[in-house]
From TrEMBL:
UniProt keyword terms in alphabetical order: Carboxypeptidase, Hydrolase, Membrane, Protease
Pfam families assigned: PASTA, PBP_dimer, Transpeptidase
High-level lineage: Bacteria, Pseudomonadati, Bacteroidota, Cytophagia, Cytophagales
Residue intervals of the PASTA domain: 642-701
PROSITE patterns tied to this protein: PASTA
Subcellular location: Membrane
Name of the protein in its database record: Penicillin-binding protein
Organism: Adhaeribacter terreus
Keyword Protease: yes
CDD domains: PASTA_Pbp2x-like_2 (cd06575)
Length: 701
């Protein structure tokens, strides 16, 4: 009996405690709801409404002729406030809206979209992300006409959230030069180097946090973002295309590791093309590093450095180009180590000019040892005077600092001077080498290479850039005269014969340097060619470097020089002001004209001039890149053939190469009927809008 009473007592106590606890909860809830209700509602509103940044539209990057290299295109996320629309309109139009959403996104049925929206309306949700896919501006305009959406944001509830995406109209062209910047503000290229100008200034607005996302509240306190400045570069998009294509062909043909090309205007220092390609798979190359400028391309320059050695020698002595140099059998010891020439058996006794033209290692090292062997510091001081130990102050971040060894360095040895004279035991970038050669072409004025012309806001220039003069006179006029003569000899009868052209003179130097692995030189080479053209009135300077070719060809004159020649031919053909009047190589047939239909105006003018055929651009066509040809009275008139963005170009009459180039750049997929000749017809009418994924068929015969 006592046990039963004890149990009942415990149960009653437990029940009482639970009742008291429940009562306390009710009291607390009531206090929160009524006594402290306003306080907690204020806190909730404060946390629900927050100021968030509104990101500025990033500025554009342009080529030298205003072609867009990178731009920000508007894309949109589609959200919906289902609580806003009037009940009658909502009930009448929800079926149609759900069906259109289903057809457009193709991820849910119309019934599923209808259920999703109606459930959100019943729960009084004010923000529903309809789909994570981002739509473009044309799709936004289309959606804005749909049922419920068409009555606008304030009455219909549709929310188009703008998201800017970076877009490159020319695809992978100049990819590394344009560069990128990520969310952590790290990156490369112009996007990174000019981020402060391109980024603009973000604004701020009040947003309401809701399930599924945030909705902007337009209360008049928002601060509008300021768009970024545009950046205009010096890049010529056509020469850039030639440079990348020529470099890629050479890399594949020689199974090389990487390569770079830089083309620069002699007087202005403006870089017209810069290509950097590295191997990512067999026969596949991409722009992954800036070999021309950054530390990845910092290497022993090899024989191209012999120009600096000869410049120091000519400045410090009275030696003449016709003086004799005994190179013997092509083998000689310097500091106890044998140096060899590339020619088996050597060159014997040759002139100073031929020592450079034939790239004799023994000849160069012998001359430098004779002049500077007792005072190597003087040789290094000349290199410093030429600016080879300093950076160029290039406009893009990441420029590598050159390394020129000094006699005071612990690594200086008995062989260092002779090896430095031929481009070893030092490291400079291809852009550094090119700038030195450019100075010789520019009558001794060493200018800073530039790749950005100006920054601007709309049509207003914010800042204009010009190349700084790094050295007003790199050496004497007499030295310049001899250096230019030696470089012309390299092309006329030396190691650079592969770049010789019948139309214009080229001056330059080949380079071949052995690579280092585990501290030892191995039989793998870095090949290069650097020079300028036309040699008698220099307009462009150019360097080509191809690293670690694996096929039979291993020297700069065989591997790198042909790339230089291809780019030089294109640049010269486009620069009509540099052309000399010349007689036609073929006697023109005055009774008939060759077939000329359409194509690049520069190329058509060059062909007609060479054939002695009269040709004239009609009024308004002088600045057009693409033209149609009209024959009249044994001459051709060139009429504009406009190429408009997102419109099908007229490629009838063009060669296959030109047609594929134009159509491909417009994003069209191409089906070709026929293998050779000119385009006779195209399936899509010229001037018609280009739809995503459009296929065009061209008939060639």
């Amino acid at each position: 009996m006592n046990i039963k009473k004890s149990i009942l007592t415990r149960v009653r106590v437990a029940f009482l405690l639970i009742a008291l606890f429940a009562f306390a909860i009710i009291v607390k809830v009531g206090r929160i709801q009524f006594a402290d209700g306003n306080k907690w509602k204020a806190i909730e509103r404060e946390r629900r409404f927050v100021y968030q940044p509104v990101y500025a539209t990033r500025g554009n990057i342009f080529s030298d002729n205003e072609s867009i290299l990178a731009t920000s295109l508007p894309f949109y996320r589609v959200a919906f406030d289902p609580s806003i629309a009037d009940k009658k309109i909502f009930d009448e139009k929800i079926d149609s809206l759900a069906m259109l959403l289903s057809r457009f996104y193709q991820d849910k049925s119309a019934e599923e979209y209808k259920r999703k929206i109606k459930n959100a309306r019943l729960k009084d949700r004010r923000y529903v992300r309809l789909n994570n896919r981002q739509i473009n501006y044309q799709e936004k305009k289309m959606m804005a006409k749909w049922p419920i959406f068409r009555i606008g944001k304030n009455k219909g509830g549709v929310i188009f959230e703008k998201v800017d995406k970076r877009f490159r109209p020319f695809g992978m062209l100049a990819q590394r030069t344009i560069g990128f910047i990520n969310e952590d503000k790290n990156g490369a290229g112009l996007e990174y180097s000019y981020n402060n100008q391109l980024a603009g200034k973000d604004g701020e607005a009040l947003f309401e946090r809701m399930a599924g996302g945030s909705k902007q509240v337009y209360d008049g306190t928002e601060v509008k973002p300021l768009p970024g400045y545009d950046v205009k570069t010096t890049i010529d998009i056509n020469l850039q295309d030639v440079a990348e294509n020529a470099l890629e062909k050479a890399l594949v043909a020689h199974d090389a590791e990487y390569g770079c090309v830089v083309l620069m205007e002699v007087k202005t220092g403006e870089i017209k093309a810069i290509a950097n390609l590295g191997r990512i798979a067999e026969d596949v190359y991409m722009e992954n590093y800036n070999y021309a400028v950054a530390s990845q391309g910092l290497t022993d320059p090899g024989s191209t450095f012999k120009l600096a050695s000869m410049m120091a020698l000519l400045e410090d002595s009275d030696i003449q180009l016709n003086d004799s140099v005994e190179t013997g059998n092509g083998k000689q010891k310097f500091g106890g180590v044998t140096m060899s020439d590339s020619k088996e058996g050597g060159y014997g006794t040759i002139t100073v000019e031929d020592v450079f033209a034939k790239s004799s290692n023994v000849g160069i090292a012998k001359l430098i040892e004779q002049q500077f062997g007792s005072q190597p510091q003087k040789y290094v001081e000349y290199l410093q005077k030429f600016g080879l130990n300093s950076t160029l102050g290039f406009q893009m971040a990441g420029e590598a600092k050159p390394y020129i060894k000094k006699p005071s360095d612990r690594s200086w040895s008995r062989t260092t001077l002779s090896r430095m004279s031929i481009g070893y035991e030092l490291k400079i970038s291809p852009l550094q080498t090119l700038t030195l050669y450019n100075a010789v072409a520019n009558n001794g004025v060493k200018v800073q290479p530039i790749i950005v012309k100006e920054t601007r806001k709309a049509d207003k220039t914010i800042e204009r850039y010009q190349a700084k003069v790094l050295n007003e006179k790199i050496c004497s006029d007499e030295t310049l005269k001899m250096l230019r003569q030696m470089m012309e000899s390299v092309v006329d009868h030396g190691t650079g014969k592969h770049v010789k052209s019948p139309d214009y003179k080229v001056a330059g130097k080949t380079g071949t340097s052995r690579k280092i692995k585990n501290g030892q030189y191995i039989k793998t080479y870095s090949t290069s060619f650097v020079g300028y053209f036309p040699a008698d009135n220099p307009k462009y300077s150019c360097i080509v470097l191809i690293d670690s070719p694996q096929r039979a060809a291993q020297y700069g004159g065989d591997v790198a020089a042909p790339v230089f020649r291809e780019l030089a031919d294109k640049a010269y053909a486009r620069d009509l002001a540099s052309h000399k009047p010349m007689h036609a190589r073929i006697t023109p047939d005055t009774k008939s004209l060759p077939t000329v239909k359409a194509g690049s105006q520069d190329e058509l003018i060059m062909i007609c001039n060479r054939l002695g055929i009269s040709n004239h651009p009609v009024a308004g066509a002088l600045e057009d890149e693409w033209v149609k040809a009209d024959s009249q009275n044994r001459s051709y008139n060139f009429k504009p053939n406009k190429v408009l963005t997102n419109r099908v170009p007229d490629v009838t009459g063009m060669t296959i190469r030109d047609a594929l180039y134009l159509l491909g750049n417009q994003g069209l997929k191409i089906r070709k009927l026929g293998n050779s000749g000119r385009v006779q017809s195209q399936s899509l009418p010229a001037g018609s809008p280009i739809q995503k994924g459009s296929i065009i068929t061209i008939t060639v015969s």
